[in-house]
Specification:
It is a single chain. This protein is α/β, with parallel strands linked by helices and 135 residues long. The chain has a domain at 52-134. It is built from four helices and seven strands; from the N terminus they run E-E-H-E-H-H-E-E-E-H-E. The longest helix is centred in the middle third of the chain and has 16 residues, at 72-87. It is elongated, with a radius of gyration of 31 Å.
């Protein structure tokens, strides 16, 4: 028997439904932690923020040659600011402390260079994504 036609258009035969095989239910293992995604994310990012800042050889040389002295209180403030910058997603930051500007790698927790006020004039700081004023 020929397929029926309506207004000259051939109607195809009926299509049989697709039968899908039934599988075994998936077993989802119980979660080991009770924290939310945000807690897990903070935990995985925490090790980078718990380390104290290091000073690169270049930064140490600049501090010595420019007679810049940092107290332990100054370094503690810088560590706290690095934690804040990391929490906001900063990667390279310009820290202004008293009359000193320092480029800090937040990712590596390293002070890259330091510039005193007299050397800051007409200076352009590049490759930074944030700035922090430390009092």
């Amino acid at each position: 028997m020929a397929d029926p036609k309506i207004d000259g258009v051939q109607i195809p035969p009926a299509i049989n439904p697709v039968v899908r095989p039934r599988g075994v239910p998936v077993q989802i293992p119980p979660t080991t932690g009770t924290g939310s995604f945000r807690d897990v994310l903070r935990t995985t990012q925490a090790p980078a923020t718990s380390q104290p800042l290091k000073f690169s050889a270049h930064a140490q040389q600049r501090l010595e040659s420019r007679n810049i002295r940092l107290t332990s209180d100054d370094v503690a403030k810088m560590n706290a600011m690095a934690d804040k910058a990391a929490a906001k997603g900063a990667k390279q930051s310009l820290f202004m402390l008293h009359d000193v500007a320092m480029v800090v790698s937040i990712t590596n927790r390293t002070v890259i260079t330091a510039v005193d006020q007299s050397s800051m004039k007409e200076n352009v700081f590049t490759n930074i994504d944030s700035a922090a004023i430390i009092e």
